[in-house]
Amino acid sequence: MNQKIYKALLGGALFCLLIFMVLWMMGFGAQSGLLLVICLVGFALAFQGLEGVKSFSYTFWIFAAVAVSMYYPDYFVKIGNFELKRLIVPLLQIIMVGMGATMSLKDFAGVVRMPQGVFVGIACQFTIMPFLGFTIAYGFDFPPEIAAGIVLVGAAPSGLASNVMSYIAKANVALSITLTAVATLMAPLMTPFLMKTLAGQLVEVNFWKMMWDIIQVVIVPIAAGLIFNSVAHHKAPGFLYKPFLFFILIVLELIFQYVSWRVIPGITEIGLRNVLSQALFITEFVFLWSTLLGLIFYLMKKPELVDQMMPFVSMTAIAMIITIITAAGRDDLLKIGALLILACLIHNIMGYFLGYWACRIIGMDERSCRTIAIEVGMQNAGLASGLAMMMDKLATVGLAPAVFGPMMNITGSSLATWWRGKPIDKDRLAV
To answer: In this structure, are residues 145 and 363 in contact, taking their beta carbons and an 8 Å threshold?
Structure first.
């Protein structure tokens, strides 16, 4: 697209913003929501084609999603009798499959290559943010479930966005990817433990249920993505590419369906029945369907399509999750929105600050300091949102993740862009 078109879009967005501000000051802000949404979409489209601000394009798409859900919440709560919040977990699983599809076992080898960076990064990840969240939640005297949401954000692992910001900041991208992978694998244990310890007095936290929820939402889809990556990109054993595998898959599927529909319902012991049912779900999801998808794309000779599509699919899923959560918690957000935004901003900024200086104090190199600062400050707000939904407290516990997600994209991209302009002396230690 011609640069003149992008500049025209920017001019149109600025004009819409000016008109919106005038109407808002005249007391017509509630009636001008569509104008604000058009303004934000205009900024998103314009920034996509303008150098220097391209990294902010996705942030404005998120702003547009938040604006439309704040002004027109009824459209994002229910469609007929179907509650849209039920889409959050499947959308989150899609994001995690995409995360796994972009990873490989090499990402975990960084634990051996960079043991100090991984140890310090993980230690900072699961101490700084959870305790910051605890302090801020109680310091602002939020209602218990809102406060629990802030702790939940702090207890979540880092997300994929931190890897992108590390690349922009000229930080240690390999370390960033390893930290994200390791923190995500530790989440089924650490997130429930931290929530139970720090937020157990605010809301009821079932440790084992939350652990299992994270395994289903995060670990299983990531494993499926890893298997897909291996198969589609010729990294799996050769037998996986043989045509007879289709026959094996069909036989396995028939066995799975027979066990699921005939054997498991006949088991009288409820605990054993539930365990077998969940084990069957994991086995089928990971080892059957991910392999089938891998074979399809392998036979198409187009595995790169997934690599190209998954970032877009993941970003779209995140936008949809934020829209649904914002609509569900709109009334509470209007009551405490300003304070919650301030609390999340402090949480986010202090995460960057403490993560960076913790590394400088112990003498780590500048690239690693930047990496760990970004990993600590940027959390997997999507996972926190999914857990809030599975706790059946989306409109309260889910509010902090909904605010934190868009905010960290703004602060993270700004910090990364600023760091990108600051040269790094490779021979100079951070202290």
So the answer is: no
Rounded distance between C-alpha atoms, residue 97 and residue 314, angstroms = 9
Cα gap 117→168, rounded to integer Å? 19
To 10 degrees, what angle do helices 144-155 and 128-139 make?
170
Q: What are the DSSP calls for 27-62, one per residue? A: T-GGG-HHHHHHHHHHHHHHHHTSTTTGGGHHHHHH
pLDDT of 372: 94
**Which amino acid type is present at position 244?**
F
The CA-atom distances, in angstroms, between 171 and each of 124, 128, 157, 164, 181 are: 17, 20, 19, 10, 17
β-partners of residue 158 are 379
Q: Where are the beta strands (DSSP E) in 51-151?
A: 78-79, 82-83
Locate tokens 């809301």: which residue?
203
- Rounded CA gap, 386 and 90, in Å? 9
pLDDT confidence tier of residue 252, bands split at 50, 70 and 90: low
Q: Rounded to whole angstroms, how far apart are CA atoms 213 and 217?
A: 6
Tell me the C-alpha distance between 131 and 16, whole Å. Answer: 42
Rounded distance, CA 428 to CA 431, Å? 8
Q: How far apart are CA 380 and CA 351, in angstroms?
A: 13
Contact 371, 121 (CB under 8 A): yes
| Residue of 337, 318, 332 lying closest to 395 (CA atoms) | 332
Distance, CA of 301 to CA of 24 (rounded, Å):
54
Q: Distance (Å, rounded) from C-alpha 139 to C-alpha 193?
A: 22
Q: What is the pLDDT of residues 77-106, one digit of tens each?
A: 888 778 888 888 888 887 887 777 777 666
CA dihedral 116, 121, 123, 126 (to 10 degrees): -160
Instruction: For the chain, give the mean pLDDT.
Output: 80
